[in-house]
Design brief:
This protein is 36% helix and 15% strand. By secondary structure, the chain is α/β, with parallel strands linked by helices. It has a four-stranded parallel beta sheet with strand order 2-1-3-4. Strands 7-5-9-10 form a four-stranded parallel beta sheet, sandwiched between helices. It has a two-stranded antiparallel ribbon with strand order 6-8.
Length: 259
């Protein structure tokens, strides 16, 4: 087992970076991506090593991490050999539903639970997750057909086997199209052409605050795409970030569904 001074964590995923800090591991964080922005005060001095898709491997190597946190959706699989060649332990994550957050926290406890306070913080977070999951299941709104838009030109949405789609399904908001995207790749984020017959039956269009910044013009275009739908902007971080943010995210989702 490594001693406390030896643990050097590189997180290449924003959600995981936030989770690392939430578990009290911030002082062991030696690298992050430019998209890892929460919580800002604790990350200010942590070096950036590019983006989730374009990691600066040379800089990361110089920072000598002992552990690198990655995600199947967020990071490119072709960087794995380079990460392994650094001698770091690779923690590969792939939460695909809100319940998977419990296993995600357990995965980090398995790697870092011997460090002071980590296990206790993880237990509190898991308890909070269980409570929010239970509260969502007690909400019983009428099912709705939802188009969740993440990009424009082209319009892009989410497949039903993604974390985000399964998050929305917690309150009976079922994303369209009714497609599975598979384990990885572009099929998980289908393109919407605008002439699909199912668009006419969409009841709610959600414009995510990330990764694309939708404005009023996009809102009008989305309304034209689904004339019968309610169109609203939503906080994409709260709905799509797993880990620690899933607690306020589930609360936010419940509030949206019952407003």
């Amino acid at each position: 087992m490594r001693n406390l001074q030896d643990i050097r964590i590189a997180s290449l995923v924003p959600s995981l970076t936030e989770l690392v800090v939430e578990l009290g591991l911030g002082r062991h964080l030696v690298a992050r991506t430019g998209f890892c922005i929460h919580p800002a005060p604790q990350l200010r001095e942590v070096p950036k090593v590019g983006g989730t898709k374009d990691v600066n491997l040379a800089k990361l190597r110089r920072l000598a991490p002992t552990h690198v946190l990655v995600n199947v959706d967020e990071n490119r699989v072709d960087i794995v050999p380079a990460l392994q060649a650094m001698g770091a332990e690779l923690l590969v994550t792939h939460p695909n539903a809100p319940d998977d957050n419990l296993a995600l926290v357990a995965q980090l406890v398995e790697a870092f639970g011997h460090l002071p306070g980590v296990a206790a913080r993880a237990e509190r977070l898991q308890d909070a997750l269980r409570e929010q999951l239970a509260q969502c299941r007690r909400v019983a709104p009428a099912p709705q057909r939802v188009l969740y838009l993440i990009w424009h030109d082209p319009w892009m949405t989410v497949a039903r086997d993604t974390y985000l789609s399964r998050m929305l399904a917690m309150v009976q908001w079922h994303t369209e199209p009714a497609l599975a995207g598979g384990e990885r790749g572009a099929a998980r984020y289908p393109v919407v052409r605008g002439d699909e017959a199912w668009l006419a039956s969409v009841q709610r269009v959600l414009l995510s605050s990330e990764p694309f910044r939708f404005d009023d013009a996009h809102r009008q275009a989305a309304q034209a795409l689904c004339p019968q739908a309610v169109v609203q902007r939503v906080d994409g971080e709260l709905l799509s970030w797993y880990g620690a943010r899933a607690v306020p995210g589930l609360r936010y989702l419940r509030e949206l569904a019952t407003a």
